[in-house]
Design brief:
With 294 residues, this protein is mainly α. The chain has eleven helices and two strands, in the order H-H-H-H-H-H-H-E-E-H-H-H-H.
């Protein structure tokens, strides 16, 4: 317990630094590091032995968050300069290059490298990093230094962390009916309901605080959309957690890693957020497209 508390304190301090430096390249550097570690954790748990795939996949995972927006490297680089750089290899082309490189590596080491190794490495090196890239994409969705982008990041995080905390406490106090006993024996239906309610409640508080202290308030229709979607995003938060649990059972490991003593690895801490933050980006994109067409 002592180790968990110490690690939690260090994580909170790191979060404070990230928030403080949210409009500097340090923000994306942190997420690039987390992305690389997460990709490496998954490939290690899957026992991928091909060194080229592991090394190249980790490098790609670290690079992808830097492609999240044209202004992600301000003030070091302007939107024009960085936009031209990341446009050299668009997402579709980057994914194609990675997949081909992995298959070529499989051919050269066919005795040790199976198709399953390539498949899990693509997920680890491409899909997971694009999940981390959504933090930067949300930050700059409404232009660089827009407070709305920061609020949206916290919206996704609250849906994940608030739901997880509420589910854990609610399950301890009221839990009777198992939710998924074969995947995660400790999760209960009552805890899940408490988690969703907690996530929505905390998001309402966050919204009130934002509208009270931010330089500009959110549009009423946007607020309604976010609050209506909050319970569903909370449900997807639990699906992210359960997905990670299934993967760990498949890999026969307790935790993805040990980078956070007492808390596991990066994937153990961000499994829910990698569902809620990208889903928040989808909600905002659909909302923006719908009201732009009206």
């Amino acid at each position: 317990m002592k180790q968990r508390v110490i690690t939690a304190a260090v994580l909170l301090a790191l979060l404070a630094v990230v928030v403080w430096q949210i409009y500097t390249p340090l923000f994306v550097i942190v997420f690039a590091f987390l992305s690389a570690v997460a990709a490496n954790e998954i490939m290690k748990c899957a026992k991928v032995k091909n060194k080229f795939i592991v090394i190249f996949g980790t490098i790609v995972a670290a690079f992808i968050p830097f492609t999240s927006s044209e202004s992600i490297m301000r003030p070091w680089f302007s939107e024009e300069v960085w936009g031209n750089f990341i446009s050299i290899l668009p997402p579709g082309a980057l994914i194609t290059v990675v997949v081909i490189a992995f298959f070529v590596a499989m051919i050269f080491d066919y005795k040790e490298t199976k198709f399953e190794d390539v498949a899990v490495s693509v997920v680890a090196s491409v899909l997971v990093p694009y999940g981390f890239a959504m933090f930067g994409a949300l930050r700059d969705y409404y232009n660089y230094r827009s407070p709305v982008g920061v609020y949206l990041i916290f919206y996704g995080l609250i849906c994940a962390l608030g739901t997880d905390t509420g589910a854990q406490l609610g399950g301890m106090a009221l839990g009777k009916h198992k939710l998924c006993p074969n995947i995660s024996p400790k999760k209960t239906v009552e805890g899940a309901v408490c988690g969703v309610i907690t996530g929505v409640f905390l998001n309402v508080i966050a919204l009130l605080l934002y509208n009270r202290f931010a330089s500009s308030t959110l549009d009423k229709s946007f607020v309604i959309t976010l609050m209506v979607c909050a319970p569903f995003v909370g449900v997807f938060s639990m699906l992210g957690d359960l997905t990670a649990s299934v993967l760990k059972r498949n890999f026969d490991v307790k935790d993805f890693g040990k980078i956070f003593p007492g808390h596991g690895g990066v994937m153990d801490r961000f499994d829910s957020s990698l569902f809620t933050v990208p889903l928040t980006f989808v909600i905002v994109s659909v909302f923006d497209a719908f009201f732009r067409m009206r």
